[in-house]
Amino acid sequence: MLVKNWMTENVITITPDRSMMKASKLMKDNSISRLPVVDENGRIVGIVSDRDVKDASPSKATTLDMHELYYLLSEVKIKDIMTRKVTTIRHDETVEKAAVLMLEGNFGGLPVVDEDNKVVGIITDTDIFKVLVEISGVYEGGVQVCLQISTAPGSLAPILDFLKDNGARIMSVMTHNVPETEGFKHVYIRMRDMEKPDFKRVKAAMDERFDVVYWVTDPVHRVV
User: Which of 41, 48, 125, 161 has its CA 20 to 30 A from that of 31?
Assistant: First the structure.
């Protein structure tokens, strides 16, 4: 899964010479929490977040009057408060790598750049959630079964063959990655809904034949 297929392309950016007030308004108006900072050629030079703006703003206990406050905010430039060392990701790298970078760096999002370091998008933790939801197929309902299987090669094949032979339609298969020294791992298979008698038959047979950890039905629906 490549970042370019999941990122937001029409990313809102700002230049270093703009005011902190402008950045605050852009983020508020567009319901976003970070802005990539770019030079005149669109290359990334920093990033500014709503936290940066908040930290640089006068406290509520300030004795400044309204005119002085607005003047101060208009004088503070993005280059004065932005983070200059930016963690980015290439548009042709994987979503999995983006997730690792965000997790380890405690970031809510990453600017996406091309070969020339120009900003071409942004990917956020919300996009990562969308990836999980889409590849799992949970919006389509169905049932998920978790099984414990051997880490030996070919251990998944008998389960897939069994499901195929019994008319089950598989929506997604995900496995829990474990060290090679581990002898067992979990596999998560989501299947489409079946007629109740057929499901009971398949479930009973799987429970008897394989090491089933759990069965679960997710009554999840899209929020309109």
Answer: 41
96, 174 Cβ separation under 8 angstroms: no
Q: What is the pTM of this model?
A: 0.80
Spatial distance between the Cα atoms of 42 and 107, rounded to a whole number of angstroms: 22
Task: Please report the DSSP string for 129-162 in residue order.
Answer: HHHHHHHHTGGG--EEEEEEEESSTTSSHHHHHH
Structural tokens at position 45 = 């030079």
Rg (CA), the chain: 25
> Hey, is 71 helix, strand or coil?
helix
If we measure between CA atoms, which residue out of 115, 113, 69, 63 comes closest to residue 87? 113
Query: How far apart (Å, rounded) are the C-alpha atoms in residues 14 and 53?
Result: 14
Could you tell me which residues come within 8 angstroms of residue 210 by beta carbon, excluding any fewer than 6 positions away?
147, 149, 159, 162
Q: Is 10 left (phi over 0), alpha (psi -120 to 50) or beta?
A: beta
> Any residues with CB less than 8 A from the CB of 12 and at least 6 apart, and which?
26, 30, 32, 35
Whether 78 and 19 have beta carbons less than 8 Å apart is answered as: yes
